[in-house]
Design a protein that fits this description.
The protein is mainly α. It has helices at residues 2-14, 18-24, 29-37, 44-59, 85-96, 104-111, 160-169, 177-189, 204-215, and strands spanning 100-102, 123-127, 137-141, 149-152, 155-158. The strands form two sheets. A three-stranded mixed sheet has the order 1-2-3.
């Protein structure tokens, strides 16, 4: 009975209804009902995987504000000193260390979905809070599931689905141009379709607005 109680408590901590929880983790709604009511118990391997995913989702946090320049912090390499976003990100990686996963705009740069800006200053990552010793770094989470991580050219970054969800979670302080541009490229290179993109239930309405903006992006 303890397992079913844990699942219910974790669902409540996420703030999900049973339907939202089922959709978030791609589990049949009836299965969630049966687990929580004690009619059935989840297989142990599924329970462990689910606990791991939920733990990561609970740890991840939204940034409340953008960092201001602090003379007591170290400076990262300037974007304007590098040709191409990837060469700049590799310099950032060498500076901060291996234990970082690029997120948001930086993840989109790694994916080739967004070129970035010549005056880029903010660097979004998952990783240890020690990275905050550098100016411009925003740590949006200390942990992230390996299932949401991609690696290319020695750089780790969030996959496209996670990047889009993170963008909507931090939209109040994020310039959404990169996200909209990336969604637009996805749409037009995927047969004018957004199939394959999934976002958490709480962001579904906002996602539909963003996709409409993305479709019109290159027409402006």
């Amino acid at each position: 009975m303890e397992n079913t109680i844990n699942i219910r408590e974790l669902r409540n901590r996420l703030g999900d209804t049973q339907s939202e929880f089922a959709k978030r983790y791609n589990i049949p709604f009836r299965t969630i009902q049966n687990w929580e009511s004690g009619v059935r118990k989840p297989p142990e391997y599924i329970l462990e995987l689910l606990k791991y995913r939920i733990k990561d989702d609970l740890v991840n946090k939204k940034a409340s504000s953008l960092p201001k320049y602090d003379t007591n912090k170290k400076d990262l390499p300037k974007r304007s000193n590098y040709v191409g976003s990837l060469s700049w990100l590799k310099a950032i990686h060498e500076c901060i260390g291996d234990d970082i996963v690029f997120a948001l705009d930086e993840a989109l740069m790694c994916q080739g979905s967004f070129g970035g800006r010549s005056d880029e200053y903010i660097v979004w990552i998952y990783g240890d809070d020690k990275a905050l010793n550098y100016n411009g770094v925003v740590v949006i989470g200390n942990h992230i599931s390996p299932y949401n991580i991609k690696e290319k050219d020695g750089l780790k970054f969030t996959d496209f689905n996670r990047t889009i969800s993170d963008a909507m979670a931090n939209e109040s302080i994020l310039d959404m141009q990169g996200t909209i541009e990336a969604l637009s490229k996805y749409y037009y290179t995927n047969g004018e379709s957004f199939d394959g993109i999934s976002v958490a239930p709480e962001y579904q309405d906002r996602f539909e607005v963003l996709t409409n903006e993305a479709i019109e992006y290159y027409d402006e």
